[in-house]
Design a protein that fits this description.
It is a single chain. With 224 residues, this protein is an alpha/beta fold. It has one domain: Rossmann fold (3-Layer(aba) Sandwich), CATH 3.40.50. Helix content is 35%, strand content 21%. Helix 1 crosses helix 8. The radius of gyration is 17 Å and the shape is globular.
């Protein structure tokens, strides 16, 4: 298994979500993801569960979640989160590219800000799509290329070659639309405010105005 690059930031990863900027980003991303992730049954797979933010949200809906992540330290945080909330999930600590043939079939597969760190995401998505039940959905949320957010993370990578963002690639809407998966396709956009906002309320106000390129894209494929 490849070195889990997120192990080094697992301890402090969730602290960003309690800042004004982090709360605003989480709110708009979550609203879009929840509206688009509509599995046709209760058996779901999450790729790149991290510290379990979305794992908990899925489990709280009564879904039977299998959560996968390459980082053991992030998964420890995820398990602690679900235990504190009285929720349960199945866990797979692995590199998704090494266990694709071992996965079961699911009513829905969700991945949030993980594909940016996986080489050849189109090929991985095709193999994940094959693990959907008919009518099931594959939904990914990714940081958008050509946006103020990808510019920020690219600058962080240049400043610090050891940053996790030095291992990331950010995809444009055009690139995602060109990925060759079967089924019905839908694309959602959000994060229309830049990372330079000064408050939660400013961020939410700018989100409604949509004056900036979207910083977050949600792609959905439904298996026919």
């Amino acid at each position: 298994m490849k070195k889990p690059i997120f192990d080094s930031i697992a301890a402090d990863y969730d602290s960003w979500y309690i800042t004004d900027l982090g709360r605003a980003v989480d709110q708009v991303e979550n609203e879009l993801l929840q509206s688009m992730f509509t599995p046709n049954g209760d058996k779901v797979l999450e790729i790149g569960c991290g510290t379990g933010l979305y794992t908990a949200r899925l489990a709280a809906k009564g879904l039977k979640v299998t959560a996968l992540d390459i980082s053991g330290r992030m998964m420890v945080k995820a398990k602690e989160r679900l235990k504190s909330l009285g929720l349960t999930a199945e866990w797979i600590n692995a590199d998704v590219t090494e266990v694709l043939d071992q996965l079961e079939t699911y009513n829905g597969i969700l991945s949030v800000t993980a594909l940016e760190f996986i080489p050849n995401p189109e090929e991985v998505l095709k193999k994940l799509y094959a693990h959907l039940e008919p009518g099931g959905c594959l939904v990914i949320g990714i940081i958008a290329g050509d946006s103020p957010w990808s510019e920020l993370y690219n600058s962080k990578a240049k400043e610090n070659p050891e940053s996790v963002f030095a291992r990331a690639r950010f995809y444009s809407e055009e690139e995602i639309r060109n990925w060759k998966l079967d089924g019905m396709f839908e694309l959602g956009k959000c994060l229309f405010f830049p990372p330079s906002v000064n408050s939660f309320h400013e961020a939410i106000a700018l989100e409604k105005e949509k004056n900036y390129n979207p910083g977050f894209l949600v792609a959905k494929w439904v298996k026919e």
